[in-house]
Amino acid sequence: MTSNVVLSVSGIGKTYAQPVLWDIDLQLHRGEVLALTGENGAGKSTLSKIIGGLEAPTTGQMQFQGQPWLPGSRTAAERGGVRMVMQELNLLPTLTVAENLFLHELPSRAGWIDRRRLREQARQAMAQVGLDAIDPDTLVGDLGIGHQQMVEIARNLIGECRVLVLDEPTAMLTAREVDMLFAQILRLRERGVSIIYISHRLEELAQVVQRIAVLRDGRLVCVEPMARYNSEQLVNLMVGRELGERIDLGERRIGTTMFQVQGMSRGDKVKDVSFDVRQGEIFGISGLIGAGRTELLRLIFGADTSDAGTVAIGLPPKPVNIRSPADAVAHGIALITEDRKGEGLLLSQSISANIALGNMPAISAAGIVNNQAEGALAQRQIEAMRIRSSSPAQTVSELSGGNQQKVVIGRWLERDCAVLLFDEPTRGIDVGAKFDIYALLGELTRQGKALVVVSSDLRELMLICDRIAVLSAGRLIDTFEREHWSQDELLAAAFAGYQKRDALLAEPAARTSA
């Protein structure tokens, strides 16, 4: 099997403020999909960044295709045939989809960009990942996170690719897009491409991977054929303890309505959406990518300007005027954004600075920050949220994705807002940390807060929510009560708006042809 090894790492270790990887030995074979999994902070992303040239190892060495491998940058790794699709997308929002796909090799004619050829090449690349319906001239910044992720995957499939690292590739994808991704993975395997597949969605792994490598606390605890393990056994390996399949949010008492949204609209993204949330309730919002879920939360929070719609809050709810996020916060509404890197954190700053960012009055006087109060505030949230870190002074960029998400949530918990809008709160978070977040949501409801949770994981919503509203093509199709929903009904509602829209679009064409 040695001649079939395309990549090997030996004795790899990495130390930041403290060691995060210890003595990792691992081999990747040609045409193999190797799953890399573990809790947040276990070292998965760090190891993949070392392989992909974004980080240098502190100890150990690597070989790629029988030669020493130590790329000095991501660009150098890509030139060698090692590509990465990370949770932190490497796209330029002010450029078009086509320009992002071929940024380093734009087709030209007589010194000018050949736009026609660029669009054609882009359409071919986009078709591989199911983006046929998107105009290549669309600005990437106008796309949702899920579609941006598919653009990033398409970009990395262009040209010579021998090793592809996929970091949580399905976290924001619909079932249809996941199927297309898995079909593309199969085609890549047949071409001899080797894939490192980082995921917390253990139920997916059996469909695409041959072997699984499990990291725990920076150490490799298992490298075995996937067929030898079920999801429960893998969870035990990852977290070192048993977790049940059901979540007990504790005794809760749901009260009267304390938050209302009426007639919220913006263009064709959100169309006349109304709903209410009761005190102590978890209200879920489901739907396909592009259904308007994130756009709805941004309108409520004042991050985008609505064409119409009102928000009311209180017991009983009273209308409030929200023209900006500052207005929303002043009225007791918090938004935990899906884009923690771009909108939720100052990556170059410490944990304490990030948590303090939304709580300056509590830790300052006369414009001067009390460093001791800032550190105590951060330490309180580090303990409450179980954030893996060396100290409150550790830079947020050094934390794993899940621990970064916990920093964002911790900041808002200090604000003690009455209404919390969670947009994909467990995106990129491992199974153990998810249960921590679920328990936190239960505690918040016991405090009488109203929670709105958007998630691409339908099973997650069914696990934690009291009611689930389904958006489709910008409209709220139906709201389902716990004990009166099924996965089939929720999925049918998610497609209903698109079917109605497509039927309406087809009518003029039918009349014209007649």
Question: Can you describe what's shown?
Answer:
It contains 18 helices and 24 strands. The chain is an alpha/beta fold. It folds into four domains: 1-81 and 164-174 and 194-230, P-loop containing nucleotide triphosphate hydrolases (Rossmann fold, 3-Layer(aba) Sandwich), CATH 3.40.50.300; 89-159, no CATH class; 255-332 and 418-514, Rossmann fold (3-Layer(aba) Sandwich), CATH 3.40.50.300; 343-416, no CATH class. The protein has a six-stranded mixed sheet, with helices on both faces. Strands 18-21-22-15-23-24 form a six-stranded mixed sheet, sandwiched between helices. Helix 16 (431-446) links the parallel strand 21 (419-423) and strand 22. Helix 14 packs across helix 15. Pfam families: ABC_tran. It comes from Pseudomonas rhizosphaerae.
